[in-house]
Amino acid sequence: MLLSLHIENFALIRQSDIRFGDGFVAITGETGAGKSIMLGALGLLLGQRADTAVLAEKEKKCVVEAQFDIAGLALAPLFAELDVDYDDRLILRREILPSAKSRAFVNDTPVQLPVLKQIGSRIIDIHSQHQTLTLADSGYRLALLDTLAGGDSRAAYADAYRAYSALKKELEALTTQEAANRKEQDYLQYQFNELYEARLTADEQEELEAESQLLAHAEAVREGLATAAATLDDDSEQAVLPRLRQAKSVLSRVADYHKAAAELLSRLDSALVELDDINSGVVAAADGISYSPERQQEVDERLALLYRLEKKHGVERVADLIAIRDELDSRLQSIATLDDRIQALMERVDKAYAVVQQTAEALTQARRSAGEALTEGIIPTLHELGMPEVRFRVELTPSHTYGPQGCDSVAFLFNANKGGEMRDLSKVASGGELSRLMLAIKSMHTSRTLLPTIIFDEIDTGVSGDIAGAVGRIMRRMAQRMQVVAITHLPQIAALAGQHLKVYKETDAERTVSCIKELAGDARTTEVAVMLSADPPTPAALQTAKELMGGQ
């Protein structure tokens, strides 16, 4: 229930604090006094967008804050889902800054506008005279039937349709991927085969490059080794090892008599061992050098293949080519198994579609039952609203095309007069008839929901006299189970409210502002009389006002 509304620096409202009672609340005032401004401010709290145009004083911020009693509405799970602290006393606040930035708060917690919208949709319904046009909207009609049906069938269908849509989207993506893969499969296979047939090993390039260098200089290397071997040990007098052996022999003859000669002999002996080993290595290396033009060509061709593949794939190492080969293999295997994946997914899509069909049938049946209940429930109310010959029927037409709202199209067939053909109400109902029909629907709709507050913005357009009184009585009945706020020009409705608020304008030296005050006692009687006649009211109007208010 809406408890209070604080408005500051919004349009014509400088500052206003409004307290709302429970039950039936009437708001009256001359056209242009600011009633719609109050609704606009309340709309900000329900998530509507705004800009600095709403600022009365451009250098100051606009603040709109409302308090609601939400005890008993079972909203704690929603608040937990939205990660907002719950309290039975709900405070919504919206600020519009001169910089055009907007801030929203729920119980002093900063939130985004979608959070305000979700919470607002569960605590208040603002119905304007223009909303009667939604009766022509199939989506609104279906949502109305679903609410009257309890919503379980709609929720089950929505879950099934979301699951089916997700699987279908996944299948479409795989099918598109398959088509693309088929186009490039041959190219991928060619690239893989080329790398696979190359029989790549990670370190071969370095080894081949070293071998290529050796083969290219084999003759020079072999000649060098041979010269080195001859220098170390051959039959010539210039060879190193024979002369060193001779020196060793000389030292060995004097080593027993000279300590230093003995030490030098030992060192020379060690050097000869090392030089003999070096000489053997040089000879072995020289014997191992064999130049083969065939091997030279083989190595060069292998290196050319590696260099070509590296350049083609934009890499510098054989290890990178191996990684590319493995990735191509993985992609080719994925393509090879894609048919199996698509087949399995098609089976899941078929099963999900069967669930959609089943839940759609249950939803259609629930809507049929709700349509019958709607027809039965609003006819007496329409009779009370001055349409004794009215006929109304909900016509549901299912199809085999499934969408987010099911597979049904719905028509509200209507005829206010006796005889004649029933047609879609959007084509035959007048503005006043649509207003009365919407009131009857809202009366029944709100009886099936936990919605605590409904605001009617001049829904009484097009009615007067006894019908106006009937509209007021219906609103008063609705107010027995919820808070009903009616913005009205009709004295018959204002007189039946439990609380009467008046919106009016005041003008000072600087500007015109909208104000609101609560009327009681003689002030309220006078206001109803003014609505009946003129200002000041006639004695007859005052008497009529007392009689109307006595009907409470």
Brief overview:
The protein has 552 residues and is an alpha/beta fold. It contains 17 helices and 15 strands.
Largest sheet: 6 strands, antiparallel
First CA to last CA: what distance? Answer: 22 Å
The total beta strand count reads 15
Low-confidence stretches: none
CATH superfamily (homologous) name of the domain at 1-123 and 451-519 = P-loop containing nucleotide triphosphate hydrolases
- Specify the oligomeric state: single chain
What is the CATH level 1 assignment of the domain at 1-123 and 451-519? Alpha Beta
Find the structural class using helix and strand composition: alpha/beta
Principal-axes geometry comes out as: elongated
Strand percentage? 15-25%
CATH architecture of the domain at 1-123 and 451-519: 3-Layer(aba) Sandwich
Helical run tally: 17
Helix content: 55-70%
